[in-house]
Amino acid sequence: PQQYCYPSLFIYGHRASGKSHVVNVFMKDLELPHVTVSCVECVSVVLLFEKVLQSFFGGDAALLLPRSPSLSDFVRIYRQQSSQSPAKQTRYIVMEKAELLRDADVNLLPALLRLQELVKDNISVILLSEIVWDKFRPNTGCFEPLLLHFPDYSKGELQQILSTDQHPSYSAEFYSSYINMLLGVFYPVCRDLRELRHLAALNFSKFCEPVAAGKVKETDTHKLWKYIEPHLKKAMQTVYLGEVSSLQWEQMEEHETGALRGLSAHTHVELPYYSKFLLIAAYLASYNPARTDKRFFMKHHGKIRKTNFLKKNEKTSNHLLGPKPFPLDRLLAIFYSVVDSRVAPTASIFSQISSLVTLQLLTLISRDDQLDTPKYKCAVSLDFISVISRTVNFDIVKYLYDFL
Amino acid sequence: MATSSFSRGCFVFKPSAKKKKMTVGLERYFTHGSEGSESSEVRFKICLDLWNKVKMETEALQDELNRNILDSLLEFTRKCSSTRDHSDWASQMRASEIPTAALVLGVNVPDHDMTFQSLSDLLRHSVTPHVASLQAKECGALKHLMKRVLERLMGTVVAVGDEEEEELQQTDPELQKSVHCSLTALCDWYISKTKKSSCSAPGKKRSSSVVDGQHQQHPVVIIFKDLEAFNPRVLQDFILICSRYIQRLPLMFIFGIATSPSTIQHMLPNSVSSLLCIELFQSLSCTQHLTTVIDKLILTSSFPFKLSGKVMQVLVSIFLYHDFSVRNFIKGLQLALLEHFHSQPLSSLCCRKNEAQLNVQRLGPADLERIRQLPSFKRYLKEQEEQDNLMTDDAHLKDVCQKLIKDLHKYHKNYYPILRCLHCLTSSLPRYPLGKQIRELHLICLEKNVWESEDYQSAMKLLKMLAKGELISLLQTCAEVLQPVRSKKMKNALVQLEELLAKLKLLDAAAEVAPSVEENLTAPVRNLQKKTDLFQLQKMLLEMNESRRSKRMSPFEILRNEAVDFVDSLVKNHLSPPESKPLYEVCYYTSSATVRRHLNATPRTSIQAALSSPYSYIQNDSLKTEDGTVSNAAPDICIAYKLHLECGRLINLYDWLEAYSTVVSAAEGSNPDSDGFGKVDEVKHARFIRAVSELEFLGFIKATKKKTDHVARLTWGGC
């Protein structure tokens, strides 16, 4: 009847640049018929279809979908329904996190882009994504959507947005001066609105403290700055990394217990004795070239200097290149030569290897179903392994080719 | 089972829904093949009783050990569900975070099940009915994860849209039609649930939540049992989805972490982990757990069943070297218990004192003969005069046995308190001459006379150098250990100990006496200044040295020596190894090899043993050979294995076949000079190929492309 809307719109911009917010507010305020779907949630396409049909035509329409419906089923039912209740206005489908559509069925994305054509209805699909359209374009080609970019917020904009969620018991100016200080500290390292909001919420109570105690007036920004600055600096070390949860952070503020240990401070892992040696052997196998095993683990290896060993490509440190895969045989051979006592090749030694894999200290490189000579990589850091080897009195540095 | 398929492949047969009824009693298994079947029923009963007791004790122990951490977790969930309702500014700003408890449990994954079980029970009982626990292996993809969550929370069957679930859907089609696998469904369900409960029983609700002041929402708790094993991708997506619903659905996560909390950061990017509000909970280390288990189950006289030093050593080393799993330790204990009662006919005496006395009277002549054959009893006989009487008179033997059993019980009653005392005294000494843990000391004591060891001597020397304060506090802890023991000897010891303590404390009061001793010492020094002769001086100094050595014994030192000697005498009296006691075999399980074989299997060694000496498995006399050779009547695979040991890295298949057929021909008894000898016929060829492929299957050889008609050996050495 009237002019149809453009079939599809692609909106992109960084995280927390207001894409979904703007679209949602827009839809709500204008009371447009729309449905918002997050692509993460759509484990299967069924959920997507169901949700769309349900919100446009009511729950009964969704029940018409057959078991494991295909795209054409969806189109068929949509047409059928839309002919019964034709659209007075453009209907919108808003797809959040659209980058996940790339992993879905091949035909889903192109079909969504020209859904209007397929269902012959005034419908428009809005895709929201953090990455640019170029990364989406399927190689078979497709309908080009309208592109719209949401640029990052500037400092002033951030300040304005953050100032909106002010505390009810303090004045707006007070809060915005707080935000100003906060941005002064954090803006150089973090421009993510969500993170900043989180930080603002966390530290505000501290900021209010001198005011509540009556030491400083609300307007005396200079003094307030003096009070809050060291605190914010401390926050920068821990909270931004997600090291310490907000709850713990608040508790720490209450108790003033000095240094709080973040998540990454707890790296110590207690392991059974042989698991430690297996891990050490895996580390050695991952970071030493296989040719040098003879030199490290044979009793009478003679004197071989490092220069004789060096090949051209091995001049760079193995630690810079990262761990290399090694077969199970090599791991066991090294294990038996580093462990000081005689170990019977029992079943539990092998089960320890697989439990190290589940603990993500080792990584299985070959496929799961390959039983013949599986390959592994060691996934722990040098610091970690030195702590482990210190507990069993093993000087790992002496056995590492890089430190020869 | 058969298939109607024409194609070759792997077929899975799901077990049918009907369960086969297993009515064969446990007891039949026990009595079957056990030695001394006449007393097996009694033994079975004792064994079962003991095991039930052990199980109960360990469960109680587990609960108690976990109480702290579980309580704090419960507190955490309560707090989370209550702060959600608050409407102050700070919690509103934080409302989008999902409260998460990171529970660090240590690498002994098999033990975690029990902890999580009690955790979810507790949560269900006291905080919220909505608890779902997930394991990584059942959540390979996001939809499976969702399905599990929904199933466990709503208690219904959820459709994913997969063909594989077809069977399930046929069972109840009504349920699955309505519920789809998304959090929206869960949300709707939750809202309807809370509405219903608040409408239907408002009075009851109010009365229960009066303490909380207001109506509380039940949080939905999702437990990830093994975080490390989850696919990070799946977990991230799930958290992202959950965070979209957090406003409507009070979700809460509990992560079970085996390694260290930093895995969370490795698995989840900042964008995801910022959605969580993580709090850390650290559980007790597994070594501490083991120590308490040993303390409660082994170092106590209330369990008549004991482990010998070697068995104990095996169990502890499996724990320390291999798995860190307390559950496996208890499994080992169970195995030892079962083996003991199964294989030792006299174990009917291994029970409480009164029962044991009764059981002695019930012993049959065969059992009495067994008693006479016990090494420890023979040793006892040698020390006795009226041997022949014991050897013949059954009634007298029973009386003596009753006495001996009584002695054994007394020995145990005294052994453990003294062991603890000694541990108290020595565990804080520098360099731990007798071990840091009480189990180490226990092992030493089980093996030999502890007072004869060098470590013990040095420990005693160190004790004689203790300062007064330390000594008093150590002796006091000893007294506390001895306090609850109800035995005459221990009571005596306690009295003596307390006397010593009183004397030591009195010393403080008598401190004024000390200066007079000092004066005695200073007098010769004054004399010294008068003498100028060198010889005189030397003599004088020597004398002083002598006198100092003898006189420097202050009253405290005398008392200290007295105390140490007292401890020494206690040790000598009560800590002798159990082997020295007659009838110790009744209570002590000694076969460490059995335990090791069962718990720490060596598949490769057994395969090699089976191949190189088939007699040990197939007890056929024709297979019996001297060391290192294989009879030519052995199974084909053994012959092939033996022959392949003689080869190098690459094996020529044809040569191998020739050698094989020669050996087999000899076994068939054909004449070595005849024409057909060693000729390869079809049957031999086929047998050889089968043997080779079996060896390949076992991993001794594999096909190689380096040389035609060759296979590569995968093991070294041989012959």
TrEMBL record, chain A:
Residues 175-240 form the ORC5 lid domain. Signal peptide: none annotated. It comes from Ilyodon furcidens. It is found in: Nucleus. Residues 6-126 form the Orc1-like AAA ATPase domain. This is Origin recognition complex subunit 5. Keywords: ATP-binding, DNA replication, Nucleotide-binding, Nucleus. Belongs to the ORC5 family.
TrEMBL record, chain B:
The keyword DNA-binding applies. It is found in: Nucleus. It comes from Ilyodon furcidens (goldbreast splitfin). Component of the origin recognition complex (ORC) that binds origins of replication. DNA-binding is ATP-dependent. The specific DNA sequences that define origins of replication have not been identified yet. ORC is required to assemble the pre-replication complex necessary to initiate DNA replication. Binds histone H3 and H4 trimethylation marks H3K9me3, H3K27me3 and H4K20me3. Residues 361-591 form the Origin recognition complex subunit 3 insertion domain. This is Origin recognition complex subunit 3. Keywords: DNA replication, DNA-binding, Nucleus, Phosphoprotein. Component of ORC, a complex composed of at least 6 subunits: ORC1, ORC2, ORC3, ORC4, ORC5 and ORC6. ORC is regulated in a cell-cycle dependent manner. It is sequentially assembled at the exit from anaphase of mitosis and disassembled as cells enter S phase. Belongs to the ORC3 family. Residues 604-716 form the Origin recognition complex subunit 3 winged helix C-terminal domain. Signal peptide: none annotated. The keyword Zinc does not apply. Residues 1-349 form the Origin recognition complex subunit 3 N-terminal domain. InterPro entries: ORC3, ORC3_ins, ORC3_N, ORC_WH_C.
